[in-house]
Amino acid sequence: MMKKLLMFCSLLLCCIAVLFAEETAEEIIKGKPSTVKIETIGTRAKMEIQRNGTTMAELLVDQYSVQKENDHRTFLEIKAPANVKGTRFLMIAKDGITDQRIYLPSLGKVRRITGESEGTESFLGTDFSYNDISYLQRDSSLDTYKMLREEEYGGVLCYVIEGVPKDTKSEYSKTNVWVEKSTKHLVKIAFYDRKNVLVKIMEMSNYEATQGVDTPRITKMTTIATNTATIIHIIKMQYNMNIPDKIFTPRYLEQGR
User: What pLDDT, on a 0 to 100 scale, did the predictor assign at position 117?
Assistant: First the structure.
């Protein structure tokens, strides 16, 4: 959301900040054209999985993403710990169709994520579902927007904007998005299920300039019902890096080369 290349991670999620117009809710979400054209992103991140505030596991994750017209590709690989090392995930969203596949070393084969029920499954025990990965990279034109109010969040005045998917089959009935009024940083997203119950909250913080682009170094997704959270700490990131096309292929997903 917030521009086509709101990418997952840094794992999942590195959200890119851009400059916004201060007129309608839709204009704020879409933003003004960025002065930096971003086509690829490479990141290394630590994913910290918490329950009741206690860290239960940590994953070291490499991610590569590329965006072309109507063609979004994301590849993730778990580098540590040893029990899940070599797990790889590939998502290709092209012409409105999303294909998600995961390679699990323990099974030695690739599994395709299909159907609504599989999409809601947790991604490797994190608070992100497979649907979340594709949802966060969705084009802003797939939602309708309404300005709800202005309020303080983290001591800073923010716009609060409601986004409702045009597709009624979406896992979420709506999202509420907090955008800092002064910096135009995206700082919070609240996710509501089809019964309009708040189920997850994602928070972005510690923005730093990376190659001229304001980027959150910490992203936290919290699941309300289970009191669990997944915190993504960006270790390193590079925009517009050279990423070989072979990375985004089923063969590389299965063989890692």
Answer: 59
pLDDT tens readout for residues 30-83: 765 556 688 999 999 999 999 999 999 999 999 999 988 778 899 999 999 999
Residue 197's contacts (CB-CB under 8 Å, 6 or more residues apart) are none
Please give the structure tokens belonging to residue 156. 């800073």
This prediction's pTM: 0.86
44-59 burial, b for 16+ CB within 10 Å, e for fewer?
A: bbebbbbeeeeeebeb
CA distance 137 to 16: 11
Return the closest-CA partner of residue 144 out of 128, 173, 165, 161. 165
Closest-CA residue to 222 (of 58, 59, 8, 51)? 51
Contact 4, 137 (CB under 8 A): yes
In whole angstroms, give the CA distance from residue 197 to residue 193.
5
CA dist 179 and 186 (Å) reads: 5
The per-residue pLDDT for 12 is 44
What's the rounded Cα separation, in Å, for the pair 54 and 25?
A: 37
CA torsion 161-164-170-173 (nearest 10°) is 80
Q: What span, in angstroms and rounded, lies between the C-alpha atoms of 97 and 94? A: 5
Q: What are phi and psi of 202, to 5 degrees?
A: -115, 130
CA angle 210, 125, 220 (to 5 degrees): 35
